């Protein structure tokens, strides 16, 4: 395990991330697997951004939202994966308290921004299908940029409240080991003593609002979309209208499905390795799957990727 380099540092500011120490006997296999996932995730989401940027016909709100979502995914996985890969090589990792809090803040902010972005994307589909004649006026490039920027800023702004509540708290004596592979909310709160219930309550309330309110808006949007689609007389028309939403619906299902598994399903009595494996679904696999879904289910994105590939080769 890597040792702390700062001899002059107060040792209480250094924490130990256990990571996947249980897999150490597998040698380089876990490192190779997670490295491949990270490369596919960053590469796939980067290709989505490049494909949309390179084709003028995709310079519409729907695909601009997709670019923002892909950028969120790149930042989200890059906040966790490099340190996880290093822990596979070194059998664990040390991290300063400040770095741990920053990682938690970035993680929480980007996760909240993703929820809000998915909500904005569903609102865009609602306007396009339910109000097609007014869509260009209601969802202009300016409106799209404001919604996307609002999702980014809101995620970072509201997550800062939870982090600020840790400032007056002190670390529990001798509590320096985090049996996880990144600084998630529960492990971070568990480091502190004192009135941690305030931080816990605020964190749960804020994350609940930033998760459930966007989900409620997504469900409401798709109720109206479904009602409008069912009123279309021709089967081909219904299929064409709903096909524009299929990729977004798939991403919403994967995103919130893994969210429920990790944070709602009872995992308190599970072995630590199994709890961490569930977290991998949310933090590692979901960002990799999303560009695959869009490239397979969205014909415009698929054609743009094929055109971009021909230009590169």
Which tags fit this structure?
mainly alpha; 3-stranded mixed β-sheet; 313 residues; single chain; two-stranded antiparallel sheet; 72% helix; disordered N terminus
Describe the protein.
It is built from eleven helices and five strands. The protein is mainly alpha-helical. The strands form two sheets. The chain has a three-stranded mixed sheet with strand order 2-1-4. The protein has a two-stranded antiparallel ribbon with strand order 3-5. Helix 1 (29-54) runs antiparallel to helix 2 (61-78) and helix 1 (29-54) runs antiparallel to helix 3 (81-90). The longest helix has 35 residues, at 196-230. The protein is globular and about 65 Å long. The relative contact order is 0.14. Residues 1-12 have low confidence and may be disordered.
Topology:
Elements: E1 14-17, H1 29-54, H2 61-78, H3 81-90, E2 93-96, H4 97-130, H5 135-138, H6 141-164, E3 170-171, E4 177-178, H7 185-189, E5 192-193, H8 196-230, H9 235-263, H10 272-297, H11 299-312
Parallel strand pairs: 1-4
Antiparallel strand pairs: 1-2, 3-5
Helix pairs in contact: 1-2, 1-3, 1-10, 1-11, 2-4, 2-6, 2-10, 4-6, 4-8, 4-9, 6-8, 8-9, 9-10, 10-11
């Amino acid at each position: 395990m890597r040792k702390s380099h700062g001899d002059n540092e107060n040792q209480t500011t250094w924490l130990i991330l256990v990571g996947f120490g249980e897999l150490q006997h597998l040698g380089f296999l876990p490192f190779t697997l997670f490295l491949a996932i990270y490369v596919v995730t960053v590469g796939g989401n980067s290709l989505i951004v490049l494909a949309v940027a390179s084709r003028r016909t995709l310079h519409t709100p729907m695909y601009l939202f997709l670019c923002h979502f892909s950028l969120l995914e790149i930042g989200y996985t890059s906040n966790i994966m490099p340190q996880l890969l290093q822990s596979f090589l070194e059998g664990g990792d040390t991290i300063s308290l400040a770095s741990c809090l920053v990682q938690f803040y970035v993680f929480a902010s980007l996760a909240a921004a993703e929820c809000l972005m998915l909500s904005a994307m569903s609102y865009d589909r609602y306007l396009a299908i339910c109000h097609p004649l007014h869509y260009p006026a209601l969802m202009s490039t300016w409106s799209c940029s404001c919604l996307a920027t609002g999702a980014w800023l809101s995620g970072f702004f509201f997550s800062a409240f939870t982090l600020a509540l840790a400032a007056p708290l002190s670390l529990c004596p001798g509590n320096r080991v985090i049996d996880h592979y990144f600084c998630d909310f529960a492990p971070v709160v568990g480091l502190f003593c004192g009135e941690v219930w305030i931080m816990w309550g605020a964190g749960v309330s804020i994350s609940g609002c930033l998760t459930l309110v966007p989900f409620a808006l997504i469900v409401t949007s798709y109720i109206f979309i479904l009602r409008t689609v069912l009123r279309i007389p021709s089967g081909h028309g219904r299929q064409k209208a709903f096909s524009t939403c299929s990729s977004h619906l798939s991403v919403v299902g994967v995103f919130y499905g893994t969210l429920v598994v990790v944070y709602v399903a009872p995992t308190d009595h599970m072995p630590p390795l199994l709890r961490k494996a569930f977290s991998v679904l949310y933090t590692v696999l979901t960002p990799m799957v999303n560009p695959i879904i869009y490239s397979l289910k969205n014909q415009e994105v698929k054609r743009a990727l094929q055109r971009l590939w021909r230009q590169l080769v």
